[in-house]
């Protein structure tokens, strides 16, 4: 499991005073109000950034970082991913998982056969959808809804998921 969890992506600048417009990748964008620091993934290095201000605009979070005071200062970080330490992450409920912990999980069918590897999670609103790269030479991807009828077991510690493939998914 990763020590860091992604909470957002800097999409652009906001204004001329060094604010960053951030697309949140967390379920609760209000969590930014309580954050004091995030880590910016920049050229393979995690740069700590202290948060001096938080505002909200539509689906975005506007962040002001200490020491970043101009449009040009924040411009170079566009596209950068923001992370928090795992211990600062929002606690999970039952049958909830951090997306970062699911990526790369081996997916097995309910009859025990390796089906593929979970490559990404699509958040649709109603329920998440798991994108699984199937064990085939064509690198085919299958979309599996993250519902109890399809997802029978998730074992993050052992990097394993068991699914029931509903008719029409494969």
UniProtKB/TrEMBL annotation:
User: Is Aminoacyl-tRNA synthetase set as a keyword in this record?
Assistant: no
What the entry lists under Pfam families is as follows:
PRC (PF05239), RimM (PF01782)
Q: What keywords would UniProt list here?
A: Chaperone, Cytoplasm, Ribosome biogenesis, rRNA processing
Question: Which Gene Ontology molecular-function terms are recorded?
Answer: ribosome binding
| Subcellular localization | Cytoplasm
Record domain RimM N-terminal: where: 7-87
Q: What is known of its domains?
A: The PRC barrel domain binds ribosomal protein uS19.
- State how it assembles: Binds ribosomal protein uS19.
Know the name of this protein? Ribosome maturation factor RimM
